[in-house]
Design a protein that fits this description.
1 helix, single chain, 4-stranded antiparallel beta sheet, mainly beta, 7 strands, 45% strand
Length: 84
């Protein structure tokens, strides 16, 4: 497996960008330098993330999302250095 996270990844199993093995390994996202834990999908090359908007669901039962543009930095959590 590559040590570089994919350019695009989604947590929804119905998405073509879903990858169970990478999600099991654990991936973290820094968006504009801030750690985000509610990312539903991201794309590094296009510079955007989709964040879940609270616990609100759409008609199909999927989380409502907000698409924000900015610098996206994915990383594998097992490679992260623990500070403190």
């Amino acid at each position: 497996m590559s040590d570089t996270p994919p350019d695009r990844l989604a947590v929804n199993p119905n998405s073509p960008f879903y990858d169970e093995k990478i999600l099991e390994r654990g991936i973290g996202i820094r968006f504009k330098g801030v750690e985000k834990t509610n990312v539903e999908e991201y794309c590094v090359s296009e510079g955007w993330v989709r964040l879940s908007a609270g616990k609100t669901l759409d008609r199909a039962g999927n989380p409502m999302t907000v698409k924000l543009k900015g610098v996206v930095e994915p990383y594998f959590r097992d490679d992260a250095v623990v500070e403190g």
